[in-house]
Amino acid sequence: MNVEIRQVKTAAEQGFADAFAGLKDRLAKPSAVAALREAAFARFEARGLPHRRVEEWKYTDLRALMREAVPLAPPPDARDRARAKDAGRFLAEAGARRIVLVNGVFMPELSDLAGLEQGLTVGSFAERLARGEGAALSLPGAAGALDEDMAVSLNTAFMGDGAVIAVAPGARIERPLHVVSVVTAASPCAVFARSLVEIGDGAQITLIETHEGTADVAYQINSVVQVAAGDKARFDHIKIVREGSRGLHVGTLMAAAGAEVAFNTFAFTIGGAVVRNQLALALNGRNTEACIGGASLLRGNQHADNTLVVDHAVPHCTSREVFKSVVDDDARSVFQGKIVVRQHAQKTDGKMAAHALLLSESAEADAKPELEIFADDVVCGHGGDRGRARRGIAVLSEGAWHSAEAGRGADDRGVRRRGGRRRGKRGGAGRR
């Protein structure tokens, strides 16, 4: 007798299934995009929310963390727009051009779109979907491999709106662009945003992402940003996560870079109950350099996970990944990094490191670096350390921590002394 074994759906998984079924008629057109949605949700439904038995998610059990089903966020109303006016203002001195997303919806009236530089266009992702341009969602190599990721599949099934930023070949946009993503809901809801960044050959852009939301509301945001950088382009990217104290944030950056590209990205996490920043970068052209970094300041019961894969698909490329975290109370930081070197990607230079400072006995930091090398003439390595603060070390006090969250820094009055046992682990570097 054959017995079919089926995984029992959690309340959250059943809620997503009911929501997708209820939206089918609305999401049925255009047909090409509807087919993408159907395939993505079928992948999600077959596997469910990622859990600790999924290797890439072993430290962030989303199935356990997302126990309850929450409704999809409704379109923003006048109250939401009013609440969003001051979002991201802590970076006002940067002089960046604001592009505002409220509950995942692109809001031109709140954005700074006047006098766009020559070669720069900014638009709505929902409008691109309405034109049936589903092919624009495909990226080659490891960047596209995350399409199979359960969180990305869920985003593809429900994606509604976001920003589309295009830079024409040769255009150098000097003024930074600031994509402000804010959740203004007063009750729990789920947001699915998708943004595209298209950088032509020889073009240059600086993009800042900030994410924030209503305090003490258990909202969920699943955000995907896709970047395609042409030959000799430059992309500088900073992501700042300042979600509300009960917010759950899963943010994915999928990028494909051509030849001689300068690709720089940094993720800074200080807010949110659960945060996962994941990156897949495909180096598809020679002599491209990628610098990938991150820092997390965690306390209370915060959980922050930085997971990435860099795919060296061609020879003569360089990548550097450095992530640091300071963890207090019962918080937990996670770093998972993988460097993949394809068979013909000779002369690859790839290194990664993860460092964590633990300020309490119950703080936790996990690191899992990986090298997957199929070429002979490469220099690749990984290392890192994890230790507890020594007696007498100066650390931020609670008041100074709030100041750091607000972007104002800390003075000497915000410093206190913290004792504790010293305990650490150190990894090594390898060469092949």
Give the SSE layout.
Blueprint: H1 11-23, H2 31-47, H3 62-65, H4 78-84, E1 97-102, E2 105-106, E3 120-124, H5 125-130, H6 141-145, H7 150-158, E4 163-167, E5 177-183, E6 190-199, E7 204-213, E8 220-229, E9 234-242, E10 248-257, E11 262-269, E12 274-283, E13 289-298, E14 303-312, E15 318-327, E16 332-341, E17 349-358, E18 364-373, E19 379-388, E20 393-396, H8 398-405, E21 415-418, E22 424-427
Parallel strand pairs: 1-5, 4-6, 5-7, 6-8, 7-9, 8-10, 9-11, 10-12, 11-13, 12-14, 13-15, 14-16, 15-17, 16-18, 17-19
Antiparallel strand pairs: 1-2, 3-4, 19-22, 20-21
Helix pairs in contact: 2-7
- Residues in helices, as a percent range: 10-25%
Q: What structural class do you assign from the helix and strand content?
A: alpha/beta
Distance between the termini: 51 Å
Sheet with the most strands? 11 strands, mixed
Bin the strand percentage: 35-45%
What is the overall number of helices?
8
Anisotropy-based shape: globular
Helix and strand sequence: HHHHEEEHHHEEEEEEEEEEEEEEEEEHEE
Compute the number of strand runs. Answer: 22
Low-confidence stretches: 396-432
Gyration radius over CA: 21 Å
Nearest-integer average pLDDT: 88
Spatial order of the strands in the main sheet? 2-1-5-7-9-11-13-15-17-19-22
